[in-house]
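Progress against Task 2.4 (sequence-to-structure conversion) is shown through the following example record, which the project officer requested during the mid-term review.
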Amino acid sequence: MRERFQSAEQTVNLLDVARVAGCSPSTVSRVLNTPEIVRDEVAQRVLAAVRKLGYTPNNAARALRSRRTRMIGAVLPTLDHAIYARVANALENRLGEEGYSLIVTTSGFDARKEFRQTQLLIERGAEGVVLVGTSHDKALYEFLHIRKVPYINTYVYDPYAGHPCVGFDNRAAAKQVADYLMSVGHREFAILSGVRKDNDRVNSRIEGIRAALAERGLRVPEERIVEAPYAITSGRDAARKLLSQPERASAIICSSDILAFGCISECIAAGISVPSQISITGFDDLEFAPHLNPPLTTMQVPATDMGVHAGNFLLEKLDGKSPLECIELEAKLIIRGTVGAPVTATAAS
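Structure tokens generated for the chain above:
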């Protein structure tokens, strides 16, 4: 039966898919075009039927790809955060060397929007897709599989996830930050993180910090973990909450330089000296990090290398080659001036 479906791939239509999925043709169409308005259970049933029957939606788009559009799509969480722009710039330069163009769109850290944007890129002829992280809508991977579009996850290294990736171990990187802070004497911590929902990088970093502390019998109370969107003003607001707690941490670990910038600014406004009264770390090593006062201790992310390797992977895939599926890069701890030994008393005044 399976062979019959494969050989009859060109004759399979929406009615066939609808019959196997137990729904209407219009529901099948919605799943393939506007999945955000369909219940997840229904969407998964339709995608299973599509896969079983070998149905290829939008034959025009498939034909367009066969003519080689020489376009690659990238769905980034945002372009407001400079680290993603750095990845995109390196990716575009590498693709341009081989005559490819890059189309960039953003998801706003929303998994459903990311799925829609990926669909649009492919419908417009993208031959491959670059994604960020591993927390994607389940239907997105199904869609890419059905369309036979190569893709790669960036900003992460997870060889056990079953998906191509290039990046670093976020958990290990954050653990390194916490280990360093403990090596200079810190025992009371707070975490100023990005929003955890749909963000595997943030969750992995929090896990890494907790793992490092657990090895020494320490922990971060949940009330000392404050989430904030990636913006300096959000970092200030979140830092204000942490600084106002009855028992103040001696070190605040931030999941991005943007949030750390806001945290330092709020400390200055509150008359709290960094690092003599409180230590602060960032993550990314953005361009402004060494120019803050004091310069920011942070984790340097290999953004340019991620863009280059992602481009190499897709170029080789589209050329019929078999590139290495998972590439691990190094994130480096950059020690500057925002970390010092903790003061004896950490209670907020």
